[in-house]
Each structure stands twice: as C-alpha cells, then as structure tokens.
Amino acid sequence: MQLDIQTNGFSLTDGIRDYATRRMQFALDRNDGHIMHARISLADINGPRGGIDKKCQINLVLAGHSNIVIEDTEADLYVAIDRASDRCARTLTRRLEKLREHSYDPAPTPLVTED
Questions:
Q1: Distance CA 68, CA 8 (A)
Q2: Where are the alpha helices (DSSP H) in 3-103?
Q3: CA–CA separation, 25 vs 3, rounded Å?
C-alpha cells in the first residue's frame, strides 16, 4: 500500500508522520492487498484559535472498486487519526464482505426436460 500524508495549516513532523503511518498499517494490514493507494489529509481548521478543529481525512483507492473516504474532526489530532483509521478499517471490511457475498453466484442448475 502506498501511503501519502498531506497537511494544511501546520507542518508535518516526524512524530505525526510515524504515528499516522503506524495506525494505518495496523488498521488496514488485514486487507492491504485490496488497497492501491491511501492518502491522509491532516488539517488545523481554526489555526491558533483552538477548539475542535483538527481534521483527519483518509481516502482509500481500491483496486477495481470505488474509493472510501472517511473524515473525522477532533480537538486532538492523534484522536482524529485514531478514530478515522478505525472507521476506515471497519468500512473497508464491510465493503469487502459485501463484495464477497455478491460475487458468489453459483451456476444455475439446468432444467431437465423430457422429450
């Protein structure tokens, strides 16, 4: 899985990069083969004013399927990353389970007619 981390409103530190990478690897490791690219966008919405303004948006590009986009806003950036990565993992698991259910269509048995 290729992971790209972008920030808006602050600079990306090594600590934040390592934390986000570790959380994404942990959350998505089980279904990593289905993900072509993951992009994490981190933003400080209000700047120095504070408040619940740290946003984490995760965009997963899946092989042959529509993208998954998850967004979470919290007062703490690390909490936003945690919640968004957890929701992303659950959403991906649900989507793949649905695809597996719908992809199994046994061949219909032919009708036997007597002439």
A1: 21
A2: 14-28, 77-103
A3: 9
Per the listing, tokens 């919290």 go with 74
Phi, psi (rounded to 5 degrees) for 13: -90, 165
Hey, is 63 helix, strand or coil?
A: coil
SS3 at position 71: strand
CA dist 89 and 38 (Å) reads 12
The string of pLDDT tens digits covering residues 32-67 is 778 889 999 999 887 767 667 899 999 999 887 889
Q: And the tokens for 45?
A: 């919405």
The C-alpha atoms of residue 41 and residue 71 are separated, in whole angstroms, by: 9
DSSP structural state of residue 114: -
